[in-house]
Amino acid sequence: MDKLREYTIAYSGLKDGSHAFAFDLDPAFFEAAADEEMPAGDMHVDVELEKSATMLVANIHAMGVLHTTCDHCNAPLELPLEGRQRQVFHLTGRQWEAGNENDEVVGLEPTDTEVDLTHYIYECMRLALPLRHAHAPGHCDPEVERALGALNTEHEPVPDPRWNVLDQLKNTEE
Ligand SMILES: [Zn+2]
User: Which residue of 7, 45, 61, 156 lies most exposed, with the fewest beta carbons within 10 A?
Assistant: First the structure.
């Protein structure tokens, strides 16, 4: 996805310690992510950045709603979303010894002065995204529910002929 200025943090001037940043994701963020199946939404993102001489740790907390449609009834759906993601950046260049296998450490060059968090904010949301987007049970569009219900009763499942063959096989075995 495109790099966006808004979500870039200039860390070189920051003192060691913890720093808080807040972002409201604007339409450009979702446009940049459009090729990656992320519906648009209203999301607020808090980033706690811990800086030390050798490392940057970004604790990303994204919360809000995505504007999507229900997989079941196809009506508009406000999908609540909350995700947390921890990203570690090593400041001493890309040749580092990864010490902690649980963290995916990203190397930044000693000459770098800023870090673009667009990708990591996106990842934080993508990992929190449920596979299925649907209303809570009983909250789907009632008209669609009725139509689907009518469809189900009109089309009684036709027995699959293969089951008959299986039944016959069973019968001959008995
Ligand atoms: Zn629905």
Answer: 156
